[in-house]
């Protein structure tokens, strides 16, 4: 059973809870106007950013009436920002009212860039959310590439680099171009497994084979599966990296 961590924000039409296991519960209530949809959604977006929670239970069980007038704004303005803020999954709980149910179904049709699933029962929604792989010690990460999101096991990532303003995720078998910046990826990846060694590189510290002094405080870093190829560790990152690697 999920336990509330605390109430993040509350008013007459929505209460946003943050759970101990890194899940957000948005509990909507009553007849909700377009302006109220926008206000509540902006608060929800901020809670995702503040808590770095990408798993949301959007609870419409107490909602009355339709809110389809807000669908266009949700599709074109809000959802792209919510996805960029690290949204992974939303479990939608249906209202018993047909108009509110229809609004949820319309919203589920407008974006394929996140996982959304409707439910009648809170316990089923909570189970679906808590079964998410991200809760298992960050064993996977969702990477946006082109127009889709793909899931990559973090243990398969060797390093990430920026080349000609393009970010590349390198594994032993492939190179994946992503729309995310290195800063955005550092927010998604588990630490200290992933470490920023340079303005252009993030490495998986579990893949480090050796570290050799270069000159002027810089180091060469050799990773498993890379042979004699190496990356450069900047002077500003070298000391902390050596501490992470216990060298």
Can you identify the CATH superfamily of the largest domain? STAS domain
Tell me, rounded to a whole number, the average pLDDT. Answer: 87
The figure for the number of domains is: 2
Radius of gyration: 21 Å
Strand content: 35-45%
Low-confidence stretches: 133-138
Number-wise, the strands total: 16
Distance between the termini: 43 Å
Sheet with most strands: 6 strands, mixed
Structural class: alpha+beta
String of helices and strands: EEEHEHEHEHEEEEEHEEEEEH
Identify the strand order in the major beta sheet.
1-2-3-4-5-6
Overall spatial form = elongated
CATH topology of the largest domain: Transcription Regulator spoIIAA
Concise overview:
Helices cover about 30% and strands about 40% of the residues. It is of the alpha+beta class. The chain has two domains: about 5-135, 2-Layer Sandwich (Transcription Regulator spoIIAA); about 155-245, Beta Barrel (OB fold (Dihydrolipoamide Acetyltransferase, E2P)).
């Amino acid at each position: 059973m999920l336990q509330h961590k605390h109430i993040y924000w509350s008013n007459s039409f929505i209460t946003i809870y943050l759970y101990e296991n890194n899940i957000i519960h948005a509990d909507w209530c009553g007849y909700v106007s377009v302006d109220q949809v926008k206000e509540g959604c902006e608060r929800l977006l901020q809670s995702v950013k503040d808590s770095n929670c990408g798993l949301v239970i959007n609870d419409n069980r107490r909602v009355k009436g339709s809110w389809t007038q807000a669908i266009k704004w949700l599709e074109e303005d809000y959802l792209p920002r919510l996805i960029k803020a690290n949204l992974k999954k939303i479990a939608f709980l249906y209202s018993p009212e047909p108009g509110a149910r229809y609004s949820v179904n319309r919203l589920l049709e407008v974006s394929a860039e996140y996982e959304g699933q409707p439910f009648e029962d809170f316990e089923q929604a909570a189970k679906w959310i808590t079964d998410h792989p991200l809760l298992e010690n960050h064993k996977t990460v969702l990477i946006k590439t082109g127009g889709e999101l793909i899931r990559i096991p973090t243990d398969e990532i060797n390093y990430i680099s920026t080349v000609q303003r393009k970010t590349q995720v390198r594994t032993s078998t492939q190179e994946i171009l992503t729309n995310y910046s290195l800063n955005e990826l550092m927010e998604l990846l588990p630490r200290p497994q992933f470490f920023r060694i340079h303005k252009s590189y993030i490495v998986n510290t579990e893949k480090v084979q050796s570290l050799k002094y270069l000159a002027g405080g810089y180091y060469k870093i050799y990773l498993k599966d890379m042979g004699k190829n190496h990356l450069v560790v900047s002077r500003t990152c070298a000391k902390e990296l050596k501490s992470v690697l216990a060298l």
